[in-house]
Hints:
Elements: H1 9-13, H2 20-28, E1 52-55, H3 57-60, E2 65-70, H4 81-93, E3 103-107, H5 111-123, E4 126-132, H6 137-145, E5 149-153, H7 160-171, E6 176-178, H8 185-205, E7 215-219, H9 228-235, E8 240-246, H10 251-254, E9 281-285, H11 287-299, H12 301-308, H13 312-317, H14 324-340, E10 347-352, H15 360-370, H16 375-381, H17 383-386, E11 393-395, H18 398-413, H19 420-425, H20 429-452
Parallel strand pairs: 2-10, 3-4, 3-6, 4-5, 7-8, 7-10, 8-9
Antiparallel strand pairs: 1-2, 9-11
Helix pairs in contact: 4-5, 4-8, 5-6, 8-9, 8-20, 11-14, 12-16
Amino acid sequence: MTLPTLPTLNELLHPEQQPPEIRRSALTCEDPLDPIQLFNMCWRRPNGNIEHLVLPRELTGTEAQIVVMSGRLFPSGSHKVGPAYSCLREGIVSGEISVDGSTLVFPSTGNYGIGGAWVGPRIGFRSLVVLPEEMSQERFEKIRGYGADYIATPGSESNVKEIYDKVAELRSDPNNRILNQFSDFGNYRFHRHVTGGSAVALAREMKAEGSGIAAFVSAMGSAGTIAAADRIQQDYPDCKVVGVEPIQCPTLYNVGFGAHAIEGIGDKHVTWIHNVRNMDLLICIDDQACLEGLQLIQEGRETLQRELGLDSEFIASLDGVFGISGVCNVLGAIKAARHYGFDRDDRVFTVATDGFDRYPSVLRRLDRQQGEMSPDRAAQRISLFNGAIDCWLLEGSEEVRLRWHNQKYFTWVEQQGKDVAELNQLWEPEFWEQQIELVADFDSRTLDLRKSA
C-alpha cells in the first residue's frame, strides 16, 4: 500500500510553508477523513489566526491576561492528534514501522487514543486504542467512528497501570506496533516544536496587549503539552512552568493516589517524557470544580452575561470550546496568576485540549447527581473561577524536582524495562536539547520519503 503524503513538523508549525497545491487542497477539503487533513494538524486556522480566547478579568478575578489556546479544531477534535501522528511518523521514516498490515496500538485515557484512531486509518493502518472503561461514552463512539477498534480496561482516568498490563499482552503479537505517548519522544517533540512555537508566535502577535508569556500552565496526562514550555522559555526565559494535577490523585504533590474525573490528566505515575527539572510550580485542582465549571460555561452562559456584564460576542464564543481538562487548565492558570502576583501586563498561557463534544454524557451524569443547572446554581459557581483559593501549591525546588524525577523509577525501571542509566540521562538538561534537535532530521527524512514516493 502506498503511503499518503506526510507533513513535517515545521509545516504544521508554519502551514503557510506547505507546498501551495497541498495547502489549497487541505484548506478546501470538506471530508474530515481524507488523508489531506493531515496537513491541518495546526494551531493556525485557515484565516491565519491561532485559535485562542482571552478570558475577561471579571471571570478570572485576576489582573493578568489568561490566554487559552484551543485545540478543538484540529482533526479528531483535539490537538492530541498531533502527538499521535508525530510518534507514528518517526516510526515510519526510521523504518521501524511499515504499512504491512500491522496494527497500531495507542495506550490512552482518551484524546491521544482518539487521535490515533483518526491518524492510523488515514495513513493505511488498523488502529487499536486501549483505554479505561469508565471514560466518557463519546470517546468510545469517536474511536469507532474513525474506523478504529478499542479495548476497555478496568477503572477510570487514573488506572494507567491496567492499560500498561494490557499493552504488555498485545506486545507479544509481532503484528502489533505500540505507540506509547507516555514514553515516546515523538510526543515531546510535537508539543515543544509545534505547540510551543505556536504559543510564541501568538504572544508576538499579541505584543501590543501585554508583555511576552509570564507563565505556561498545563495539566499532565502524558506530559506532552507541558513540553511547549521548553520552547517558550527560549524566547521568554523568565516564563514560569506550571503543572496541574487533580487533588483526588496528587501523584507529584505528595506521591498520592486515587481516582478522579478530569478525563485526560493525572495517572498515578510520572511520565518518561516529562521534563520535571524544568517545572517551577505544581497546582492541584478539585475534579468537581472542573465538572461544575464546565457545566457553568456550557449551560450557564446567560447567567455569566447577566452577573458579570460580559458582552454577548464573548459569551457566544464560549459555546463548545471547553472540555473538562480545559477548565482544569483555566483554574490552574488563575491560581498561578494569583500566586505569582501577575498584573495587567502579564499573560498566562494555557490550552483547552478538546471541546465539549465528548462530554455531554458527563454533564448528564452530573445532572443526575446534583440536579440540572439553574440560574441560582450558575451564579454560585462563578466563584469557582474568580474566587479561586490559593492552596494545594508546591514550589518546584531542586529537591522537589529530584523527587519527581526519582518517582519515574517505579513505573519505568521496575515495570517497563528501562534501566537506571537511561533514567539518569533524563535529569540532564542536555538530554532534552538533544531530543528537540532531532526534529530537523525527522523532517528532512520525511521530505526524502515524499521524493521517493
